[in-house]
Amino acid sequence: MDQWLDRHMGRLFLTPAVVLILIFSVFPLVASLILAFSRLRLSGGGFKMRFAGWRNFEKQLFGSEQFHLLGTFGPLSGLGWIVGIAATAGLLYWMYRYCRSHFTVIGFVGRLITFAMALGLAWLFSATLLSGRPFGTVGTTLFYVIVGCGLQFLIGTALAFACSQHISGSRTFRVIFFVPMMITPIGVGYIFRMMFDTTKGPFAEVWQWVGLGNWSWATDPWAARMFIMIADSWQWIPFVFIMMLAAFESVPRDLNEAAEIDGAGKWMTFREIIWPQVLPIAATVMLIRVIEAFKIVDLPNIMTSGGPGIATESVSLQSYYAWRSLDLGSASAIAYILLFITVVICVSFFNLVVLARVRAKP
Question: 308: cis peptide before it, omega within 30°?
Answer without folding.
Answer: yes
